[in-house]
Design brief:
alpha/beta, FAD/NAD(P)-binding domain, 4 domains, 5-stranded parallel sheet, 17 helices, about 30% helix, globular
Length: about 600
């Protein structure tokens, strides 16, 4: 079977991995000269993509066509005949749309000192040499080209990308940094980064209105905060640009017969399935999403193209491979009352990880109460409603739910049927007979094995659902968020299961008799797959026989990805791959063979 994948970014390559593993032919068509999409433009992600693609680049069943686009597509019986702009004609039985996202171009703002986030990324790339001498004060501005009348969706990744650009900046220099935001829509452990950088002196300013005036020496910024117009000078301004649908989707929609939604993305008939037969979708063709979700949906689209997903899902559930848990529901206030307030805020970065889930659930409950005629407030530090969830957020506002954003330095309190928001710029007291707080639900998150909590960013990126090779987390246990993601996560997990099952992976072994338990391998392991276990050993001394504890390294094969770092760092050379032992045996045998005759 031939599977045509339109788009050579991280999601398209992820789909190709599943297709190839299942013994089918994958044809990737990329309309630019190089693969990688937006991910390849980010300095700290470029190598990750290359490594990921290198795993399949020499596969005999993979064909990659660069610098070409689709000009015609015709379906006959069970196959597509697709003509490309370079004149090639491709026959395919399934098609996966992985066209990716298009970064917004803010021509109204850009200048020599006003840079987009991608331009700034290139500027601070270590390969570019020294930073400018006047690299003293940097301002980051979020939501440029998204959450607007022209494009109402949230771009999902801009806040996360900005917090990482702050990190990469501080790794190279120590400028004064200010981050101007509407809401900080972070993911998982990124809330810890926010706290770290706040404590390190990075200034966060909640300000929407902005005005830039650039000259040869810097940029003057004017913005409103606490009801006051302020003016501030920066050496450089970084615009966190929005991500929009690939404009090529419109032509592909006409050629292959699938529908787009009102925002220009592919409309899902079912999860990752278009309304055109045998045409599937993944990654940024569906909505703005991060790298780990692009990989996840790529795996899922690959499964749909070559396998019976329903049978696979049933088998995976029967084996207990898919793990999920029912999320807590919001308890609606009872009794006779006229006003209600939801407080969406917490000072604990560990609890803040669940702001996305609580934002959606609080807004859902608030809309129901508003419809019932109650006066409803949502007081919030950050309303995390990425991508299409932003539409729900705006609907709630238009319907009459009153949102009160806490500015920097403001506090929230509730007592005696009222709520109070107080800070440098205002002191506001409102009647609220019922108050529902984020903290009322934090116990529901305690003791859960959330993948987004217990796995590092690289682990989540390359293995978006895998807890171990015996457990793949979906839904609430992967990361609490909007319900539309769970069916996609099931499909992505199936892709991971197929890849894990079919990979013949050799794991390092420990020569325990020689292991000193120094811990070098444990410190080097990025997957936390090595433990130092204490084994009891009897020792003979003068008098009675005694015993002692000897530390030994132990490799957890469920968590190990066989990267080899432990082998390369072991100072005693006691951790080895089995292949090395086989190699030594072959070399010994070869040494005893007679020399080959020469002419």
């Amino acid at each position: 079977m031939n599977v045509l994948i339109l788009g050579g970014g991280i999601s398209g390559v992820s789909a190709a991995k599943v297709v190839l593993k299942e013994g089918h032919n994958a044809i990737i068509v990329e309309n630019t000269p190089e693969l990688g999409g937006t991910m390849a433009r980010i300095a700290n992600c470029r190598i990750g993509f290359k490594t990921f693609f290198d795993e399949i680049k020499d596969h005999p069943s993979l064909q990659v066509i660069r610098g070409a686009s689709v000009t015609a597509a015709q379906r006959k019986a069970d196959a597509f005949t697709v003509t490309l702009s370079d004149g090639k004609v491709v026959e395919a039985h399934r098609v996966i749309m992985a066209a990716g996202l298009s970064p917004y171009d803010p021509v109204e703002y850009k200048g020599k000192r006003v840079l987009t986030s991608l331009e700034y990324d290139a500027r601070i790339d270590q390969k570019m040499g020294e930073l400018p001498e006047d690299f003293n004060k940097i301002g980051f501005f979020l939501c440029v080209g998204s959450r607007s009348k022209e494009y109402p969706l949230c771009s999902s990744v801009c806040c996360s990308y900005t917090i990482r650009e702050v990190k990469w900046t501080l790794q190279r220099a120590k400028p004064e940094i200010a981050v101007f935001y509407n809401d900080l829509r972070l993911f998982g452990q990124e809330f810890y980064l926010e706290k770290i950088y706040r404590d390190a002196g990075v200034r966060f300013v909640r300000a929407n209105s902005r005005y830039f005036e650039e000259d040869e020496e810097g940029v003057t910024v004017r913005y409103f905060v606490d009801g006051v117009l302020r003016e501030e000078r920066f050496n450089y301004i970084v615009l966190a640009i929005g991500l929009r649908p690939n404009p090529g989707l419109k032509d592909l929609s006409a050629l292959f017969g699938f529908s787009l939604n009102e925002y220009g993305f592919i409309a899902e008939e079912e999860p990752l399935v278009t309304d055109a037969p045998d045409v599937f979708a993944c990654g940024g063709a569906l909505e703005p999403m991060n790298i780990k979700d692009s990989i996840l949906t790529g795996f899922g689209a690959g499964v749909l193209a070559v396998k019976d997903a329903e049978l696979l899902t049933a088998a995976a559930r029967e084996e207990g491979l898919l793990r999920d848990e029912d999320p807590p529901e919001i308890v609606m206030p009872d009794g006779d009352f006229k006003s209600c307030a939801f407080y969406l805020g917490t000072d604990d970065p560990g609890d803040a990880m669940f702001t996305e889930y609580m934002s959606a659930r609080f807004i859902e409950a608030a809309r129901k109460l508003n419809e019932a005629g109650k006066t409803v407030y949502i007081v919030t530090k950050n309303t995390v409603m990425p991508s299409y969830d932003e539409v729900t957020f705006e609907k709630a506002r238009r319907e009459g739910v009153i949102f009160i954003n806490l500015e920097e330095g403001e506090t929230f309190s509730a007592s005696d049927g009222a709520i109070r928001v107080a800070g440098p710029g205002r002191d506001l007291t409102l009647a609220a007979e019922r108050v529902i707080s984020f903290d009322d639900y934090t116990d529901h998150f305690k003791g859960k094995e959330f993948l987004s909590v217990f796995r590092s960013e690289p682990q989540l990126r390359w293995n978006p659902t895998r807890w171990s090779r015996k457990r793949y987390h979906i839904g609430f246990l992967r990361h609490p968020r909007d319900r539309r993601w769970k069916p996609r996560e099931v499909l992505g997990a199936l892709g991971e299961i197929l890849l894990d099952r079919e990979e013949e992976r050799l794991y390092p072994t420990v020569e325990e008799e020689r292991c000193s338990g120094c811990g070098s391998c444990k410190d080097a392991c990025p997957q936390k797959a090595i433990d130092i276990a204490i084994t009891e050993k009897q020792v003979s001394i003068f008098g009675p026989i005694s015993s002692t504890g000897i530390p030994k390294a132990h490799v957890d094969e469920d968590a190990c990805v066989a990267c080899g770092l432990c082998v390369s760092t072991c100072p005693s050379d006691v951790i080895k791959f089995p292949v090395e032992e086989e190699k030594h045996k072959v070399e010994e045998c070869m040494a005893h063979l007679p020399a080959e005759k020469t002419a």
